[in-house]
Amino acid sequence: MGGDFNTGQNGKLDRLPPQQGPTTKKSRTLNNVIKELGLIDPWRNNNPSQKDFTFYSNPHGSYSRIDFFCMSQQHIHKVLNCGTESISISDHAPVTLIIDMGNDESFLKYWRFNVSILSDEKVVKELKQNLKEYIQTNDSGEFSPSTLWEGEKVVMRGKIIEVTSRLKKARLEQQRIPKNKIRELELEHKRTSDNMVLSELKKKIIS
């Protein structure tokens, strides 16, 4: 399970500035539930003393780690990666968890055409040209229409996968640079609490 638990597990590690005094009632309740269900926080398990945060309170000028995953301790070895991204879309940071579910040969994967790429005129033109070239090359009268059609489906599927992969790579590259800058500013503000850094961070998030 995972999400916004509205409290941290450890006030000294999960808050900035660190929480002073005894553990709050909310944190005690959360920790008791986690313990009773036999769960474990995979990020904290991999980072026992590291500080990172998922929520920034503007009124209080404080960071806290209140968004996380909990999973069964018996499956913790399946975790490949668990991390925190930048606070860019909402006032909470996305948290990610990648798990190795193992290989199940009985599970069949079906390819589906991503029709959204047809909204790009350049892509439509490229696919039409690919179809035209296939017909010019193979429609020599030696093959039946059904054979040509089956071959064309294979060729077009390969072309569509290529185009989709290319578009995804370009989209991710466009997103990477601003996300990296937001992350840099976020880390700097966590370290310095500089209001000028916070102001620049807000501008980057809005843009």
Written account of the structure:
There is one protein chain. The protein is α+β, with helices and mostly antiparallel strands. The chain has two domains: 2-105, Endonuclease/exonuclease/phosphatase (Deoxyribonuclease I, Chain A), CATH 3.60.10.10; 110-207, no CATH class. Helix content is 46%, strand content 14%. The protein has five helices and nine strands. The chain has helices at 25-36, 42-46, 121-138, 145-192, 195-206; strands at residues 2-4, 15-16, 39-40, 55-57, 62-64, 67-69, 71-72, 79-84, 95-99. The strands form four sheets. It has a three-stranded antiparallel sheet with strand order 2-5-4, with no helix packed on it. Strand 4 and strand 5 (62-64) form a beta hairpin. Helix 4 packs antiparallel against helix 5. It is elongated, with a radius of gyration of 25 Å.
